[in-house]
Amino acid sequence: MGFPANGSSQDKPYKFLIYGKTGWIGGLLGKLCEAQGIEYKYGSGRLENRSSLESDLTTVKPTHVFNAAGVTGRPNVDWCESHKVETIRANVVGTLTLADVCREKGLILINYATGCIFEYDSGHTLGSGIGFKEEDTPNFIGSFYSKTKAMVEELLKNYDNVCTLRVRMPISADLTNPRNFITKITRYEKVVDIPNSMTILDELLPISIEMAKRNLTGIWNFTNPGVVSHNEILEMYRDYIDPSFHWKNFTIEEQAKVIVAPRSNNELDASKLSKEFPEMKSIKESLIENVFKPNRKTPVA
To answer: Is there a contact between 239 and 211 (Cβ–Cβ < 8 Å)?
Structure first.
């Protein structure tokens, strides 16, 4: 197949076809395209319906395709435990169909995937600073959601036109969005306190557009370098947003009693992405600069 070479640019104007119009990332991608003057269209086809995807590609004639569709479950991944066929249809059948149709057309697919397919283990202990790399085999299948995501990542390795971005615990400056990790944990009655790799969308989504322009493919840990814990984020929230904010912690064992499926906790090694984009900020720096400072409600000390 004649895919554009990694790092190559093109002469003709970009035209992006985006799946996931009603989703958080899909919506933000459209806004970014508008801001950058990039022509884009949202896909109207269902991912699992091959002919509808082929029709989209024929009609839109994109230079690149972005997949921000799929099922995470509402209000959370516990939904997937009782909706397994729907989860497979969207996250496995749909994603593979789109990758396959794009490959036939010689198009690169930027696929927003998940890094919630790993958990701390003896070789990657909590606090060690040793993160999971792109080539590591997923070791977390505690939730059905994560299980389907690990399956599809493994299969997509065989598609040389796919750029898989492992997103984790996404955060943005929009603190009203219920999908925002910060918004979620400020509304929980109790939270665990575990350092994790996370994705600051305000900084990394523009990077994903640049990755498409550079025709990058393969697996990428799509998180800011380093880790941050729940308590560290909530301390920032208290310091910048609401000085009266209080929260309670509980253990993973206590958390297990109120959730259906276990949750992934890990550190991903972001050095591959950092090498390509050396300007990328560390997670704590990015949180302050991109999320908390723009939302500051407390007086500047």
So the answer is: no
Of the candidates 86, 14, 97, 24, the one whose C-alpha atom is nearest the C-alpha of residue 56 is 97
Give residue-wise pLDDT tens across range 219-238: 999 999 999 999 999 999 99
- What tokens does 109 get? 């697919």
Contacts of residue 229, defined as CB under 8 A and 6 or more positions apart, other chains included, come to 193, 194, 195, 196
Query: Is it true that the peptide bond before 75 is cis, omega within 30 degrees of 0?
Result: yes
Which residues lie below 8 Å from residue 35, measured CB to CB, with a gap of 6+?
A: none
CA dist., res. 75 & res. 269, Å (int): 29
Q: How many residues does the chain have?
A: 301
Residues ≥6 apart with Cβ < 8 Å to 252: 192, 194
Beta strands in the chain (DSSP E): 15-19, 39-42, 64-67, 108-114, 162-167, 190-191, 218-221, 248-249
Give the Cα separation of 27 and 187 in Å (integer): 23
pTM of the prediction?
Answer: 0.94
79-93, 148-162, 234-248: which range is least confident on average? 79-93
- What the block records as the tokens of 167 is 């997103």
Give the whole-angstrom CA distance, residue 152 versus residue 5.
24
Helix H, strand E, coil C: the string for 133-149 is CCCCCCCCCCCHHHHHH
Beta carbons within 8 Å of 4's beta carbon, 6+ residues apart: 10, 108, 215
Largest CA distance in the chain: 59
Burial of 258 from C-beta contacts in 10 A (0-12 / 13-18 / 19+): exposed
CA 259 to chain centre: 22
| Buried residues in 266-276 as b, exposed as e (16+ CB within 10 A) | bbbbbebbbee
Which residue matches tokens 């898989």? 164
